[in-house]
Design brief:
The chain is built from 4 helices and no strands. It has 142 residues and is an all-alpha fold. The model has no long low-confidence stretch (mean pLDDT 79).
């Protein structure tokens, strides 16, 4: 270990002499060139970084749009199945009964109306009201 310290101790004056000999002073033209070169490198790095940031931002936006598309496709399929269900007669009947409070037809409440040209009369109307059949039909078994 003592040997290593002696090596550094012996190299110190040599390094100091080299430092004094090197002229690190720049004139105005060299300084402008160095500043322009550093500015160009910084601008290049800025453009590369900006491009990467835009790619990442677009990637996140694409991911969000894909999720929205999947959500809308799921909602669309649900709405299509709901539409198919609503087009069935069973659903229409259930909706009529529950929402509109409709009931089945009572045969005693049905009145058949005939045009006057066929000789309708008060008897025909009363007979149809009580659903006794057509008075013109022969009554079998009575």
């Amino acid at each position: 270990m003592a040997r290593d310290f002696r090596l550094f101790r012996d190299a110190g004056p040599v390094i100091l002499q080299m430092d004094r000999r090197a002229a690190w002073r720049l004139d105005a033209g060299q300084f402008r060139g160095l500043v322009l070169a550093l500015a160009a490198v910084a601008l290049g790095l800025l453009l590369l970084t900006w491009g990467r940031v835009r790619v990442l931002a677009n990637g996140y936006q694409i991911m969000e749009l894909r999720q929205e598309r999947d959500s809308l496709a799921s909602q669309h399929s649900q709405l299509e199945s709901r539409l198919a269900q609503m087009q069935s007669l069973a659903w229409a009947e259930q909706a009529a009964r529950e929402q509109l409070h409709m009931v089945d037809i009572n045969p005693n409440q049905v009145i058949t109306l005939r045009p006057k040209g066929l000789g309708s009369s008060l008897v025909d109307s009363v007979a149809s009201l009580f659903h006794r059949g057509d008075p013109e039909e022969p009554k079998a078994g009575r």
